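W.,

You were right to be curious about this one. When I first looked at the sequence I had no strong expectations either way, so I just let the prediction run and decided to look at it fresh. Below is the sequence, 69 residues in total, followed by the output.
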Amino acid sequence: MIRYEVIIYWSEEDKAFIAEVPELPGCMADGTTYQDALKNVEFTIKEWIETARELGRLVPEPKGRLVYA
């Protein structure tokens, strides 16, 4: 299960939904629908982590949700 924050927004310029993962620099994907963008970025997150590990780079831990008392 992916636990990284994903921000999805519509790009008028690209005519597509863009999904960005702020905790993983450069990790982003797009899709013609919101659901496609999410599905595509989930694949991209896995690829990003795999590549970082192969290169011996640090893979940030997901921040998770904030808990308010």
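Here's what jumped out at me. Strands lie at 7-11, 16-20, 28-31. And, maybe more interesting for your project: The chain is about 30% helix and 20% strand.

Coffee later to discuss?

I.
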